[in-house]
Amino acid sequence: MKLWAGRFRKELDQKTNDFNSSISFDSRMADEDIIGSMAHAAMLAKQGIISAADADAIRGGLADILSDIKSGKLPIDMNAEDIHTFVEGELTSRIGDAGKRLHTGRSRNDQVTLDLRLYLKGRCSILRSHLENLISVLCDKAEQYSQAVMPGYTHMQRAQPITFGHHLMAYSEMFLRDIDRLGDATARMEISPLGSGALASTTYPLDREMIAKSLELNGVTHNSLDGVSDRDYVIELAAVLSLIMVHLSRFSEEIILWCSWEFRFIELDDAFSTGSSIMPQKKNPDIAELVRGKSGRVFGDLMALLTVMKGLPLAYNKDMQEDKEAIFDALDTVEICLTTFTPMIDTMRVLTGNMRKAAAGGFINATDCADYLVSKGLPFRDAYKATGSLVALCIDKGLTLESLPLDEYKAVCPLFEQDVFDAIYLDRCVAMRRVYGGPSPGNVLNQVARVRELLRSCSTDKD
Fold first, then answer.
1. CA distances from 110 to 115, 258, 315 (A)
2. Which of 17, 64, 228, 402 could form a disulfide with 12 if both were Cys (CB 3.0 to 4.6 A apart)?
3. Which residue, among 326, 131, 165, has the nearest Cα to 245 in the 3D structure?
């Protein structure tokens, strides 16, 4: 059944029908389509547009269809044009003419964007839970390794001493921002477009606020043209998903580096690694590599959505059907990445000895050495130059700042005393970085406590 069949005298060409059809991907919105239709029917009856008896028959029929779809008793017909056509056709076949009254005061244009808003709202809630799970794992690991000294890097060069816990909590901050952005995107998504009609609303006295309230949405769209043609909420969500993938990809890159023999900071569990078909010694971080690679796929979905929408005049255009495959793919990709990445992090083995060895060999306490001279009264720029000379001397002699004799220190600057070795001791270097947000073990534990409290607040808000 074509909802628009009355105007046409010929059947649609089969290949054109397949090209035009969206049932293969919008069928995943069956629940939302039925729930939205039930709310619409209740409103029509309340406004006296259809009878209460018809509304009851419609709502009962829709409830049965929803139950049958969920149980598998009713397979979705992939020959239908879209999910709306399938549901309405099935409803009419079950309850007769009452089913034909469901579409009163409604267009597929406002119906589909309502379905999509409801569907994306639900998926955002699921993604938020996955992000919370990942952050919780990071907090556990950060607490466990709050004192595990490792080199921090800039330009991929060893820079200053931090802890592994501090490094992990940096990613927790990124993912917390992702949760905030999901919340922001959801807030603009939770608006009902129903009542916008095809583009110019309707002459029926609809109660749009009633529908919004019954669907737990926070209001209605204010302009019928914008109501059916807005896909900002889809693009915004795709941008949020892209940022999540940026963060996962950056983390994956570090996992890949840390697994290499050149670093050997961590070892992934066998359940999250693969081998080589020809090299028996290999243990490859393929999961992290796939996550890194799939970021490009999600970025492509965002670019596709931007490109589809950039030249469209008001109001609805069929181009907008392309929104669903892109955003569904982005959602599916991010979800599988999160659900695979989290247990990979949870089960990885941290090689703290190798981290400590790398920290000891990179002059990453040079800044602390310069700060020591500043504490003795030397201007920082002079202290910086003196410490640079010491580093050059150590490199020439094959030594470290810790192993360089005190008389060599004094030859560069007489302000150096025996206590310089306490000042450049790696654990002390880290412990003294107590500035809020810094890597001292106490700070890391405070960061963990703060993030856990935020997660508890998230759970309370959801309840």
1. 9, 50, 11
2. 17
3. 131
- What is the C-alpha to C-alpha distance for residues 358 and 260, in angstroms, rounded to an integer? 14
274: β partners: 284
Question: What domains are there in the chain, each with its CATH number?
Answer: 5-104 (1.10.275.10), 111-142+154-204+216-358 (1.20.200.10), 361-462 (1.10.40.30)
3 state DSSP class of 161: strand
Does this model's pTM top 0.85? My answer is yes
Residue 84: Cβ within 10 Å count: 25
Phi and psi at 322, nearest 5°, equal -70, -5
Which residues does 89 contact at the CB level (< 8 Å), separation at least 6?
A: 1, 80
Distance CA 71, CA 102 (A): 24
Name the token pair of 81: 């044009």
Rg of the chain over Cα atoms, rounded to whole angstroms, equals 30
What tokens were used for 391?
Answer: 């580093």
Is-catalytic flag, 375? Answer: no
The CB density around residue 25, as the number of other CB atoms within 10 Å, is: 15
Q: Which residues contact 246 (CB under 8 A, 6 or more apart)?
A: 295
- Per-residue pLDDT of 79-122, as tens digits, reads 999 999 999 999 999 999 999 999 999 999 999 999 999 999 99
Q: Which helix (H) or strand (E) holds 350?
A: strand 349-350
Q: Is 249 known to be catalytic?
A: no
Q: Which helix (H) or strand (E) holds 160?
A: strand 157-163
Question: Between the CA of residue 344 and those of 134, 252, 267, 291, 330, what are the distances in Å?
Answer: 10, 11, 10, 12, 21
